[in-house]
TrEMBL record:
<feature type="transmembrane region" description="Helical">
    <location>
        <begin position="57"/>
        <end position="78"/>
    </location>
</feature>
<protein>
    <recommendedName>
        <fullName>Phage holin family protein</fullName>
    </recommendedName>
</protein>
<dbReference type="InterPro" id="IPR007165">
    <property type="entry name" value="Phage_holin_4_2"/>
</dbReference>
<keyword id="KW-1133">Transmembrane helix</keyword>
<feature type="transmembrane region" description="Helical">
    <location>
        <begin position="7"/>
        <end position="24"/>
    </location>
</feature>
<keyword id="KW-0472">Membrane</keyword>
<keyword id="KW-0812">Transmembrane</keyword>
<dbReference type="Pfam" id="PF04020">
    <property type="entry name" value="Phage_holin_4_2"/>
</dbReference>
<feature type="transmembrane region" description="Helical">
    <location>
        <begin position="30"/>
        <end position="50"/>
    </location>
</feature>
<feature type="transmembrane region" description="Helical">
    <location>
        <begin position="84"/>
        <end position="106"/>
    </location>
</feature>
Length: 112
């Protein structure tokens, strides 16, 4: 039940980011659900590998390089899901930061 709630909250967060940020477009709630699912899978499988491979630069930037990794992963997902588009890297970076803030807030609310 907790997993489904987080999935729905992440989909709503994607719709909110699309509303707030020009160039970050999600065509429907159904598309947002798919994007939230794919982003969750990508963040669980690919992101740890990328963080491990870029560990030296992540340490040098005091962890800020993970924002770049997040933006690249969001941009990557947008490249193959129809109905989800991002205009450029800067939009992906800003969208990733907004998604992180929303996720941080919702995780605090849904935590038992």
């Amino acid at each position: 039940m907790q997993l489904i709630l987080r999935w729905l909250l992440n989909a709503l967060a994607l719709l909110l980011v699309a509303y707030l940020l020009p160039g970050f477009e999600v065509s429907s709630f159904y598309t947002a659900l798919i994007v939230a699912l794919v982003l969750g899978i990508v963040n669980a499988i690919i992101k740890p590998v990328l963080i491990l491979l870029t560990l030296p630069i992540t340490i040098l930037t005091l962890g800020l390089f993970t924002l770049v990794i997040n933006a690249l992963l969001i941009w990557f997902v947008a490249s193959f899901i129809e109905g989800f588009s991002i205009d450029g890297f800067t939009t992906a970076l800003l969208g990733g930061v907004i998604l992180w803030v929303i996720s941080w807030l919702t995780n605090g609310i849904t935590r038992k």
